[in-house]
Amino acid sequence: MEQVLGQKKQWIYRAVSLLSFNGGFVNMVTFISFLHNPVGYVTGTLTFAADAFADGNFSLFYDMLLALLFFLGGAILSGLLTPKDSFERGNNYNLVIALEIFCLLSGTFGLRSGVNSAKYFLAAAMGVQNALSSHYGKSIIRTTHMTGTMTDFGILIAKKINGHKIDNWRLIINTLLLVSFFWGGVVAVFLYKWFDYDALLFSVVLCFLMLKFQWTRRFLYFLLQKYPQLNFIKFRR
């Protein structure tokens, strides 16, 4: 796997787990609070928009439309900052995660202050994150909704049953995505009951963990490049 994809599976496993947990967390908070629809679930948002339009509820229609546009805007910004299609270290991830933190904080403090339109920043945050993880090997990785992940998982299992050779890491990644997303939602339910919109600050903490992970690895790599005598530090880029 390392030779073909040029990356260490432990890093990928950790990254997709944190991102998927965060996606499940934010989606659940928006589901049980103001939108009653996961903000990263574009299929659901489109369905709500179509239903509202057909019923003549244009206020709700515009609400869903803005959520879609902010999600799209977040994805566009993320795509501009990470032009590579592959999921790999050094792809401007710290800048993109910092952008997601900004969107999450804007949404959280805006909602706390009674600014209802601040919820669109949460949609933008999910758009930023979903575009952040794209391809890894032959797998398409998405971390804010699990429809495609479950479909891929089913296809892989079917191939396994039919006796086709598949890479086990693909099964592991899909499992981690689904399990992490689920537990992110579970944790969100309890934290929202206890802290209301402040629960979203936990999502910010998760993003800072990703940033710390990135910065720590970059700093260690810099030290090893500059001071080869420190090669006793076990670091694999």
Summed up, what is this model?
This protein is mainly alpha-helical.
Please, could you describe this protein's structure?
By secondary structure, the chain is mainly α. It has a single domain, classed as Growth Hormone, Chain: A. 72% of the residues lie in helices and 2% in strands. It has helices at residues 2-5, 9-32, 42-55, 58-81, 93-112, 119-132, 147-161, 168-195, 200-226; strands at 135-136, 139-140. Strands 1-2 form a two-stranded antiparallel sheet. It is globular. The model is unreliable at 1-6 and 232-237 (pLDDT under 50).
Features:
237 residues, disordered N terminus, mainly alpha, 2% strand, single chain, Growth Hormone, Chain: A, disordered C terminus
Distance between the termini: 14 Å
Task: Figure out the total of helices.
Answer: 9
Mean pLDDT: 80
Instruction: Provide the domain count.
Output: 1
Extract low-pLDDT stretches: 1-6, 232-237
How many beta-strand runs? Answer: 2
Topology:
Elements: H1 2-5, H2 9-32, H3 42-55, H4 58-81, H5 93-112, H6 119-132, E1 135-136, E2 139-140, H7 147-161, H8 168-195, H9 200-226
Antiparallel strand pairs: 1-2
